[in-house]
Amino acid sequence: MRKRPILKISGIKGFMNEIQDSERGDFQKDGYIICRKLINPVLARLTEQYCLFEMLNDFKPESHSGQVPNTHSVYGDSLTETLLLAVQPIIEDFIEMELLPCYSYYRVYKPGDILHDHRDRQSCEVSATITIGYRYNDKDDNYRWSLHGYVNGEKRYLNCEPGDAVIYKGCELEHGRDRFDVGESSYQVQVFLHYVTENGPFAEKYKYDGRPEIGCIKK
Predict the structure, then answer these.
(1) Does residue 219 register a pLDDT over 60?
(2) Which residues have a Cβ under 8 Å from the Cβ of 168 and sit 6 or more positions away?
(3) Structural domains of the chain, ranges and CATH numbers in brackets
(4) How far apart, in whole angstroms, are the C-alpha atoms of residue 177 and residue 208?
(5) Are the C-beta atoms of 90 and 162 separated by less than 8 Å?
C-alpha cells in the first residue's frame, strides 16, 4: 500500500495544464520525453520569483565538489517538495509508470556555469527538470540554454520554455548543459523532481531519499 504524504495537495489543479497526446514521446526508447507546460506560466513565474528572493536572502552556494560550484542550490525546499507531490500523478500518466517520490532540488544558474555530462544516482531513476524562468542578457530572443542528452551517441538539445519539463531516466541517460554563455546578471532557474518506480529495484531503499517523509530536510 502506498503511504500517504503528510502534505495534502488540494486546489492545485488550477496551476496545472492538460497535457496533449501529441506531446508524448518515446520515454522507453529514447530515455526522455519533453512535457510542454507541465506547470502553467503563473505558477512558473511565482516559483521563479520565490527562488530569486530565497537566493537574495539566504544564499546557499553549492560546494566546490558539487556539480555546479558556488551556484545557489537548495535541497528539499518546501515549495519544490510540494511540486514533487503535486505533479507526480501527471508524470505517472505521461510515462505510464507508477512512482514513489524521492526528493526535490532547485538551482539558480549564473553566467559561466557548466553542467558536465553525467548520469544521476539511484534516487533519480525517473527525473523531471522543469524550466522555471530565465533572463538572458546580451543574447537575442532565440537563445535558449538547453539541457542536452545522448541517444545512441547522438547529442540532442532539449529546448524548453518556462513551465516545460524534460522527463528522463536519470540513471541511464547521460545529460548535461554547455557553458551558460550570457551577459552579467543573467540567470536560469531549474527545479528538479526525482522519483523511483514503485515496483522497481530502488523503491524500498531510495524512496523519500532515505528520509522519514517528503518535506523532511534531515535524513
Answers:
(1) yes
(2) 31, 32, 33, 126, 127, 128, 129, 149, 175
(3) 25-206 (2.60.120.620)
(4) 27
(5) no
